[in-house]
Design goal:
The protein is α/β, with parallel strands linked by helices. It has seven helices and five strands. Helices cover about 55% and strands about 15% of the residues. Shikimate-3-phosphate binds next to loops.
């Protein structure tokens, strides 16, 4: 049985795309914590931010991450800010292998160019926002991760190869 693999990293690093591909390659189930929050509440992430603020969203995120990290052998993609809460970092590291998908702000900008679904990017200065978030979060991503994978210029297939090699996993 493979360990649970938890993908962390900024918006636009390809956590969902690579995560889905990784799960298929290993024969595991893919789960996206943001999607679970949306299904449970029946509300989109932007609406949750609007009604409950970021604090309300983070509270829901903590509950869902605590629950999902208990599932055996899944690939879990988390939202870009999931590593902010110490309790999330603790359960992610102790219950699975945490992989940080690193992407430069340049690549994040490209990959999120047409996005209307991320409340934190609904600002005229997206570059400034992404740089600010990276300044704060980069050290936390690195501290939390068992493995760091550079994704700039790589498609999901190569990202997945690096994760499998880096964690010493076997394909199904
Ligand atoms: C967030 C990232 C989003 C989502 C929410 C907040 C963040 O997830 O959880 O909009 O704080 O960086 P993705 O990283 O999947 O876009």
């Amino acid at each position: 049985m493979h360990p649970t693999i938890i993908l962390v990293g900024p918006m636009g690093a390809g956590k969902s795309t690579s995560g889905r591909f990784l799960a298929r390659t290993l024969g595991l189930t893919f789960i996206d914590s943001d999607k679970v929050i949306e299904e449970r509440t029946g509300a989109s992430i932007p609406l949750i931010f609007e009604l409950e603020g970021e604090a309300g969203f983070r509270q829901r995120e903590r509950a869902v991450i605590d629950e999902l990290t208990r599932l055996p052998g899944i690939v879990l993609a988390t939202g870009g800010g999931a590593i902010l809460a110490p309790e999330n970092r603790e359960v992610m590291r102790s219950r699975g292998k945490v992989v940080y998908l690193h992407a430069s702000v340049e690549h994040q900008l490209e990959r999120t160019a047409h996005d209307r679904h991320r409340p934190l990017l609904q600002t005229p200065d997206r570059r400034g926002r992404l740089e600010e978030l990276m300044r704060i979060r980069e050290p936390i991503y690195r501290q939390t991760a068992h493995l760091v994978v550079e994704t700039d210029g790589l498609g999901p297939r190569r990202v997945v190869q690096r994760i499998i090699r880096g964690l010493g996993l076997k394909r199904r």
